[in-house]
Write a structure and sequence with these properties.
- With about 260 residues, the protein is of the alpha/beta class.
- The protein has two domains: about 160 residues, Rossmann fold (3-Layer(aba) Sandwich), CATH 3.40.50.720; about 100 residues, ProC C-terminal domain-like (ProC C-terminal domain-like fold), CATH 1.10.3730.10.
- Helix 7 runs antiparallel to helix 8.
- The structure holds NADP nicotinamide-adenine-dinucleotide phosphate (NAP).
- NADP nicotinamide-adenine-dinucleotide phosphate binds next to helix 1 and helix 4.
Length: about 260
Amino acid sequence: MKIGFIGLGNMGSAILNGILQKNLVTPDDVYVSRKHPENAKSYASQGVHVFRSNIDVAKAADILLLAVKPNILESVLEEIRGALTDHHLLISIAAGWPPERLLSVVPENVSCVCVMPNVPASVGAGCTILNEKGRYTPEQMDMVRQIFNSVGTTALVEDRYYSVCGALTGCSPAFVFEFIEALCDAAVLSGIPKPLALSLTAEMLSGSAQMALKTGAHPGALKDRVCSPGGTTIEGIRALHEQGFHAAVMEALIRAIEKGKRL
Ligand SMILES: NC(=O)c1ccc[n+]([C@@H]2O[C@H](COP(=O)([O-])OP(=O)(O)OC[C@H]3O[C@@H](n4cnc5c(N)ncnc54)[C@H](OP(=O)(O)O)[C@@H]3O)[C@@H](O)[C@H]2O)c1
């Protein structure tokens, strides 16, 4: 496959690094556009083709990963429209772009899918939501899966679940980083050096997530396994309830979902 990247910021470069590391493509099969090509020297030195123009990328590649900010996606699609053919597959990762919106602006003979990756993709631990709705062949969806499996896991969901699942996995890493920072601050306040606090917190979170995944147990049951009667942890749980932790986290995701509808 010949794959082009339009937009090479946080997500575009994470996905490009993943497919190169997993040898899904050779650098010679990759085309990227940069307003300032000197900003892609490390890719160019590996053999990736670096163009100034999005249209040149669209002409050279069969698969186009659209990784620009949501507010400029429409103008980028307008710009490359003349270069699109029925051989192309467009993959949009833009927040606030469900399939009906993408399908309404992409020419009818051009395949397209909507996917929502997340930032842990940059360390190969992403969780990408793929929307079932779109215009694609089974072989094209298989390629999409391969691309995003190279930076983590993928889940194919029905269109009606896409926006919420995308916000859950796409936005929540920021909420988790906020949680990590709060735990570290409390540890630092209690005299622990920040680097030690950070590594212990991250390991603890990773282990807790593994436990939730591997056991499939209800999170309340897992919580109960830590809370001894009359012990230290249940004191902390009481504080979380007093401070509105559960409601605050729910509200954070609900607001992210609502904002996604207004983009
Ligand atoms: N970050 C996340 O956690 C995350 C998660 C899920 C989905 N997404 C989606 O991923 C997309 C990209 O987000 P991001 O965080 O990677 O943003 P980003 O880091 O700001 O990257 C955007 C890229 O687009 C480039 N660009 C701007 N205008 C362009 C144009 N006209 N033609 C070609 N390239 C252009 C920018 O280049 P310059 O820097 O040279 O301007 C930059 O490389 C968004 O649609 C977002 O909704 C992001």
